[in-house]
Design a protein that fits this description.
five-stranded antiparallel β-sheet; binds adenosine-5'-triphosphate; 2 domains; about 30% strand; six-stranded mixed β-sheet; Alpha-Beta Plaits; Rossmann fold; alpha+beta; 11 helices
């Protein structure tokens, strides 16, 4: 049994008559990168803030590392990057972290360790105000890593970064995960969650719609079959995959809910019925497709979720 690091039970937050978080029950296991995915305003930050004990739930509960969220001994074991950390602009990256380390009773060697981890050691002497946005975010992660917390909570760590900065941040999270760090990362960018997370919780309008591995969420692959005449092919494929299991997607192509292993049988059946098979391709559903099915929210530029 893998150890539970976070468990929420019916976690709810109401602001006036607005339910920001609505009975969310989620679990995060030790050593995994958990992607908390949802459009802007879905309730991600509010949920994370309750986990960190920064705000109180209206109902339900959150436990972190086996104890109620918000207890000082629990909070001390969580590192968080949530709504931009406050750094002194005229101090260097290293001096900013040294100030924080001292406050937590940690030695300067700990500062050097985390700067190394986020690949900022070479620029540690430069003033914070001269850092790029990506470097500022990495320093934020370094600050969260001070003292080797059991759990790292990163709220939209790639928000506002350029593509290179985003790639750097993803690589950083992957390297932390490889070192055994448990990470919860919120994001509205599907591609990034798909790339780096083990499991995903999908949240929309405060409700947790699904919690599963990325692979399970995406479900099995489908086949794309281009065959003529299309109507005859449709009839044959519907006998194989059911009426609901076949869709026309244009260009004489049908999408069929059958696994890749069904390809030989599909081709054989079509040919037996004197249907010309021009192309059969295995198409994996992206997380974006799945999210759209669950929420009805089409995504922006194929990457981002918009509410
Ligand atoms: N302090 C507050 N007072 C009133 N409403 C709030 C407060 N904090 C959040 N909300 C509302 O709760 C809902 C969820 O917000 P939350 O910030 O948790 O979403 P999110 O998924 O993190 O989105 P984003 O990516 O935009 O931060 C939103 O409708 C927001 O307007």
């Amino acid at each position: 049994m893998r150890e539970l690091v976070v468990e929420t039970d019916g976690l709810t937050k109401r602001y006036g008559d607005r339910l920001a978080v609505d009975r969310v029950s989620m679990t995060v296991m030790r050593g995994e990168v958990y992607g908390f995915l949802g459009p802007n305003g879905a309730g991600k930050t509010t949920t994370l803030r309750m986990m960190l004990g920064l705000i109180r739930p209206t109902a339900g509960s959150a436990s972190v590392l086996g104890r109620p969220a918000g207890r000082p001994d629990v909070t001390a074991r969580i590192g968080a990057l949530i709504e931009g950390p406050g750094f002194y602009p005229y101090l260097s990256g290293r001096d900013n972290l040294r100030t924080m380390a001292r406050y937590q009773g940690l030695p300067n060697t700990e500062v050097d360790r985390v700067l190394e981890m986020v690949d900022l050691a070479g620029r540690a002497k430069d003033a914070f105000k001269g850092y790029s946005l990506g470097m500022k975010q990495r320093l934020g992660v370094a600050a969260a890593m001070l003292g080797s917390p059991d759990l790292l909570v990163l709220d939209e760590p790639t928000n506002g970064l350029d593509p290179a900065g985003m790639a750097d941040m993803r690589a950083l999270v992957v390297s932390l995960a490889e070192a055994g760090q448990t990470v919860i990362l919120s994001s509205h960018i599907l591609a990034e969650v798909q790339e780096i997370c083990d499991r995903v919780g999908v949240i929309n309008n405060g409700r947790l719609l699904r919690e599963s591995t990325v692979a399970d969420l995406r479900g099995g692959a489908t086949l794309r079959v281009r065959a003529t005449p299309e109507d005859a092919a449709l009839a044959v494929l519907m006998r194989m995959a059911g009426d609901e299991g076949v869709r026309r997607i244009g260009n004489e192509t049908l999408e069929v809910d059958l696994p890749a292993t069904a390809t030989p049988d599909v081709v054989r059946q079509l040919v037996t019925h004197s249907i010309d098979v021009h192309e059969v391709a295995v198409a994996e559903r992206s997380l974006e497709d799945v999210f759209f099915e669950m929420t009805g929210n089409r995504t922006n530029s194929g990457q981002e979720l918009v509410s």
